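Fig. S4 source data, part A: sequence.
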Amino acid sequence: MSPPADTSLANRYGGQKRPLSRAAKRGIVLAALAAGVGFLAWSSTSSATGGVSFKDIGFSTVDATQAEIDFQVVRDPGTAVKCAVKALDSKFAVVGWKVVDIPVGAADKTADGGRTVAQRVAVRTESPSVSGVVDSCWVPGSGK
């Protein structure tokens, strides 16, 4: 006669695993929480020291061959920046692309000393666009 199914399965795959203790569960949760806080601290300080950041503000389609993209660039005062902007169609295909030079501005014209610059860029498109975004911004000569 063959042994019962429970016994043969236990012999083949091992017995039932013991559930984690309450202390082990608490340790896992605390380790995950500490890792999350550490990641947030790292990401907030690394982006603050990056030098250039951007934020998409708005988009409008002028006609089937032109779009306007509004965005802000935050950079160190006295730093010229280049940004690549793109217009996209309904299938997220790029239908327009332009690299924009953002020169050094007068520091006394803004409340933050010339750090934040708002831009409106006209981009020629090969077909009607439904959105426009900033692809990237960089300081010329820094290796992008």
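Fig. S4 source data, part B ends here. The first strand starts at residue 52 and ends at 63.
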